[in-house]
Amino acid sequence: MPQPLFTWLLIAPSLALFAVFNILPLLWLVGLSFFRYNLTFGPPPQFAGLKNYTDLMNDRFLWGRLGLTLLFVLLAVGIETVLGALLGYAFWKKRDLPGRRLALTLLFVPMVLAPVAVGTFFKIIYDPMYGVLPYYAARLLRIKPPDLLGSGNLAFPAVLAVDVWMWTPFLIMMTVAALGAVPKALLESAEVDRLTAWQRMRYVVWPHAKFVLMLGVVLRTIDAFKTFDLVSAMTAGGPGNQTQLVSLTIFREAFNDFAIGKASALSLLVLFIAVSLASIYLFVLNYGVLREGK
Amino acid sequence: MIGRRRIASALASLGLWAVCAAFFMPVFWIFLAAFKTRAQILTIPPIWVFHPSLEGLRFMVERQAGAFWQYLLNSVMISALAVTIAVFVAYLAAFSLSRFKPAATDFMMFLLLSIRMVPGAAVVLPLFMMYRSLGWIGSRWAIVLFYAMFSLPFSLWILKGFLDGVSRRFDEAAMVDGASRFHVMFRVVLPQVKPGVVAALIFNMIFVWNEFLFDFILGGERVATIPVALAAGLYTSQGTDWQYIASLTLVYTAPLMVAIFFVQRHLLLGMTFGTVRGEV
After folding, report:
1. How many domains does chain B have?
2. ipTM of the complex, rounded to two decimals
3. Which residues in chain A touch residue B17, judged by CB atoms under 8 angstroms apart?
4. Count of structural domains, chain A
5. DSSP code of A176?
6. Which of A113, A150, B93, B144 is deepest in the core (most CB within 10 A)?
């Protein structure tokens, strides 16, 4: 078998899966976004030109949802990265922690729970009457048990807190892995050369750890942007629309209001934002590698 | 001096264990609820010590004439098949991209990563329309292959990272000895990237095991997995069925916990995407 044929033959199954389950639906999505189409009733799809897009541009409610989503991503990923990096460093440093394997297992469990289950169960953990959290908060702070998910001011931070709890372990794991990528010999010679803690971080640890750490941040950003199950199960976007992230809006447009055309246009807009965000990250990542002349 | 250092070390251990316990606490609370009676779950002040009851687990299994086993079987079959297919297909592609470096390798890597960027809620709609037109709704293979596609990019990224780290001398030496290409791929190179394979399997398993939206919209009763059953069976005539949620979560999470305990080393090593060999 000639080499080029073999090369592409190995890649073909991946590309085939990609084409059928990704490219095809995306083309479908682009097509639908130009139509006026209701899934359940009314006339067959009508060509609407750019109407769905102009509607989007003028929809202030949607822009509000997008802003909320960006805020959510920024806060969630920011807090998770800082906490994850600090704790990850501590766990990496303390390699002789007794029962480390069990400790890390317990630590990693939140991220393997089904988000639907977590979201649902936090409804009762947060419940002002039956919830364990408001109960202890009330006892400790001597206040009335707060209605976390039901009040306009507290719902967003409460949802954010669950996301931080669930996903900080992921960044802890990425940090531990990233620090593991630093060659031990280099660390030892840094010790011998008496570099300051800052110098050691900047010139020894960071160049080796950054790729994995940044990858963790990229993956987490992408996923935070897509958050759906967790919030959908916990608040369904309420109270009011305080926690309605954009993925919930899309779902609502498509499967509650059956406004397929508009939902498609919105999907494409969100996709565009997600890809841009990730491209920026990857560009920064690649640029760093290039600069090192790797 | 030595005494002081020892105390500091003990305090550090204690602190780190406290962090782990704090993160585990909500999970522990859900697990406890699986062994409580319905009334006990809602009791305030919260009960921490009680006589464990198996009522919740029994209800869970007996509910809907044993549909639980069907859901569990679906979950196991769908995630195992999807992830195996994904890792196998990804290994072929990663091998080719790493060894033969065809044109547009970087672009393809980015293109495949972009799959992960698509918000589920955005892509489930056209997929639903497509599946409906093709009559794939409720088909087991259509779901499995979709999840395989979704697990592909991550597997490919991990595996390519590891393959890049395996010297090509191994390939060449084996080729000189007259080994076939497939022998090189699966007998010579594959054993050296085992941590990558394990990490790819575990990570995608976690994702598919817990995925809810796509199976909910594209599957049907016949292919419903446990997360879908969970979302569908939340409400009974007496309100939300907390006992059911807790029991399902316990049964559903326990295997993953055991897996994390045993393959932790591979997991951490896998996340370095092949940039280190040895211990993390």
Report:
1. 1
2. 0.86
3. 97, 99, 103
4. 1
5. H
6. B93
